[in-house]
Please model this.
Amino acid sequence: MNPLNHVAIIMDGNGRWGLKYKNSRNAGHKAGLNTVEKIIKETIKNKIKYLTLYAFSTENWKRPKREINFLFNLLENFLINRIEELQKKNIKLKIIGVKSFSDKLNKLLNTSERKTSKNSKLQINLALNYGSKLELINAFKDLNKKKDKINEKNLVKYLQTHNIPDPDLLIRTGNTKRLSNFLLWQLAYSEIFFVKKLWPEFNEKDYNMIIKKFKKIKRNFGNV
Model:
C-alpha cells in the first residue's frame, strides 16, 4: 500500500456546472465551496497531512471582472466565517502564489496564515494568483541573487512549497486533461487522476475510490 501524504487538486468545472444547472457561473463557484468542505473532512478522515487546492491561477485574471470579484468575496466570507473552525480542527492554512489582492483580502489571508501557523492535523495550501512558471522564474532569480550553485537541491529551497513534500497524487475534475501551469516542478512523479465529473459533482465516494486506486499503484520513480 502506497503511503499518501499530499493530495493536490485542480478544482475544474465550477463555472460550467453553474451555467448548466443554475444559468450562472457564480452559482457554480458557490456550489464548489461545498465540495471543498466535504473533501477537507474526507482528507482528515484519511489522515492525509497536506491538501493543495488550485483556487485561482495567474491566468484567471482574464475572466470577467464580475466573476473575479464574486470569487474573492466568497473567499473573504469563508475566511471571516470559517477561520475559527479551521483553528479548532487543528488545520493550518498556507497561501502559495502572489498576494496582490485588495488590502482587505491580503490582510485576511495574512491573519489566517498567522493564526493557524502552529496547527498540525492538516495543512491546506491554497494556490491563489499562482502560476508554476512564475514560481520557477522567481526561484531562479532568488537562486542567482544568493549566488547559490544551480542544482535541484538549491532550487527547491526557493519554491513556494519549500518544506512541503511533493504531491503523491493529483486529481483534476472537469473532464479536462492538462496541468494548467500548476505545480509543474512538484508534480514530476505524482500519480494523476483525471475525473469526468465537474467539481461541484465530485463527492466523498469519488475521492475515496481514487485514494484506494492510488494505494494499489506500483510506483517505480524511474526504477524497474
